[in-house]
Amino acid sequence: MVTGDDSELPLSAGDGHTGSVRILLVPDDSVSRDRAAAAIEAGADRFAVATATDPEAALATVAEGGVDCVVSGYDFPETDGVALLRAVRDRAGDLPFVVFTGRGSEAVASEAVAAGADEYLPADGDGAYERLASRVDCAVSQSRAERRVAEHVDRMTDAFCGIDESWRLTYLNERARDLLDRDAESLLGDRIWDLFPEIRDTETEAELREAMSTGTPTTFDLHAEQFGRDFSVDAYPSTAGLSVYFRDVTEARERERKLRELSERFQLAAEGAAVGVWDWDLTTNEVQFDDRWAGMLGYDKSEIDFELSGWERRVHPEDIDEVWAEIEAHFAGETELYQCDYRMETKGGDWIWIRDRGRVVERTDEGEPVRAVGIHIDVTDEKQRARERERYRRFVDELPHAVALYDADGRFATANERVATVYESTRSELVGRESPLVERLREHGDGDPFAALVAGDREQVSETIELDLPYRDDAIVDASLQRLVIDGEFDGVLGIARDVTEERRRQRELERTSARLEALYEDSPDMVSIHDASGTIVDANPVIAAKLGYDRDEVAGMSVWDIDEERTPDDSEEVWKDLAMGETRRLETTFKRADGTTFPVEMQIRRVDVRGADRYLATSRDISERKAYERRIERENERLDEFASIVSHDLRNPLTVLSGYLQLARETGEDSHFDRCESALDDMDRLIEDVLTLARQGDAVGSFDHVSFDTLATGFESDVFGRADGGTDDAVAGRANGSGEYVEVVIDADDDLLADSGRLKRLLQNLFRNAAEHGGEEVVVGDLEGGFYVEDDGPGIPEERRETVFESGHTTSESGTGFGLAIVERIAEAHGWEVTLTEGDAGGARFEFTGVDRP
Predict the structure, then answer these.
(1) What string of H, E and C letters represents the secondary structure of 740-792?
(2) Cα(303)–Cα(179) distance, integer angstroms
(3) For 158-172, what is each residue's pLDDT tens digit?
(4) For the packed helices 671-697 and 624-645, what is the interaxial angle rounded to 10 degrees?
(5) Which secondary structure element, helix H or strand E, spans residue 115, and what is its range?
(6) Are strands 753-755 and 787-792 parallel, antiparallel or unpaired?
(7) What is the pLDDT of residues 634-643, one digit of tens each?
(8) How far apart are CA 699 and CA 92, in angstroms?
(9) Start-to-end Cα distance in the chain
(10) What does DSSP assign to residue 462?
């Protein structure tokens, strides 16, 4: 039924078989409107054609709805058919659109197809209008079929249930309730293991538990015996538990089974079936191809040019030479049949594998080929499977492990090259032979583990066993055997074996070596640590942790310079970067304890390789005693130097005076000269006494007493301190060691201390005498944080001279020897104290002693 522009047609869409299908015809002046409409309506009874005079009217009709397909010309006065196509796509989406014009070209065809036209058909040529009906029918039917599929998918639902983390059912949809044929309320809240005990200890339970524990979706097949159905199950973890979808695939599985049987039954027949046919006229090089040949490449037959060049340009460039070689060999009579596999390009630009078979069916009297016919078979899938088989074969053969398949009796069914090499045989010779590995496994294991694999009682067996092999009779082998099931049937036992003889022996030796090294490391009397190239300590033995006052775990992770007082990142790097692998360097440094105290160490650093990474092994030893001994030796040497200096210099002066006055006394006989001699002898005596005291008082204190200043004052009251109760009689003034000069001593110290009481007495005597000799009248002994002080009210000591007052022989007093304060410093050093001279509150000298231990 052909109508005019404003005719009305029923706009209800049919289902592809019933109801009217409305075709909107928009012809250009190269197309006969009436002929085109008649041809379309003649193509199918359900087609009804309406026409539009121009693209604008066509768009208005499309906007009203109810149009099932647009057939458009191309050449319009103010636009073209491709522009109309794009406008229709904007308004009506995927509405079928056919371009039919007598003014087209290859460029127009390409443009139309690129813009999304369903079909492009030239209007000129014989049979064009008849082909138009066929193209419209194809476009409309395909579009409706797609819509029907979409609607069907939208209506289709799976059975669904929700399971919480306690494995209780929380939800069942209608499909699931229908499937179970039970009241949903009676199921919700119950554990699935209680509702369906038959899935206990099955792969279904394992899959569900794996999904729940790992949070990974899983898909598996389930045969529900109680329903007699097969399901494909998808389980999706969520925060609430699992969402499980069941899809009934019973019929699909049955079809697959039947298809598999048919495929196996007709595989050989299908291999030789004619898929696409070609007929080649060698006199004109025209080749006829059938519809199936064109469809194999994704073309309609009308799109194929019947020239040999059309076939040749679709053959892969890397294959064309081989193809021509096979063709020419057949043409020359060298082969009875031409056959070659090669790649051809499809319309979509993909490459498929073609098996081309043919023969010459007509020759000239001279034997020159005139006509050849043949078939094309799409063998892309076969090639892919062959590549996969070859890939797997090569993969298995290239493995460094022995891989074999054993039959139910433990005989070789197949093996890779490694197995053949191990048994000094060939793969074909091994087939059917009993496997020594299986025999040894049966002897080594409990029961018969191989029989358990065959019976299905076990899925896998892994053992390390000793095995006699042709190339060695004491081999150690790691073997793993797994039950192989294909399509639900037992297919054999897959075995993988690896010779680990040397590895295990090295491992055992390494374990023994590691045990010895660990004992040396853990039980070493030295401090041992290992750090990386960044200075981070990665391990430490118990000794270094104890010496530093940390837990062992605390040391690991610290930096080298966290414990090394003298090291910085820069100078540490200077030490490490110059070390060769295995080289050791010795140095001395100072370690800092957790409490902030330090001690000297001698360290040896060695660069080592630990599993391919640079590490530095530091072995350290506390050298505090050695350093103390060295300091004592230095002090003794200094004392000897001082003593030699004093003997050679300071004693020479009084000796010179004595010698001179003795000479005068002989000459004159006056008694006053003898008095001067006696005075010189007194000076020598006092000088010698101070020198000996200086030498003795510098010795380190061996033992400490609990000393109180009050007790000390009481004990030496008559000699030095006067009365301890602070009385004002003559006894309050202490004599400065018999010098005839006196100072008042005030004890303002409450804290006790640990010291050698005799040396402490001498220290105080010298300080009191020093105060008296320099005009002081009062000396105060008081407490100080970390020690005590002695302060007088004398004239004090100028700042520029404070550094020299402790030197031996230094004095500003006419009656002094210059050793008093030197003795004070030596006594302090012997106790481990530090003495500092500063100015007192009254301007006198203030001696502060720190580092003093308290009881």
Answers:
(1) CCEEEEEEECCCCEEECHHHHHHHHHHHHHHHHHCCCCEEEEEEECCEEEEEE
(2) 51
(3) 788 888 888 998 888
(4) 170
(5) helix 106-115
(6) unpaired
(7) 766 766 666 5
(8) 111
(9) 125
(10) E
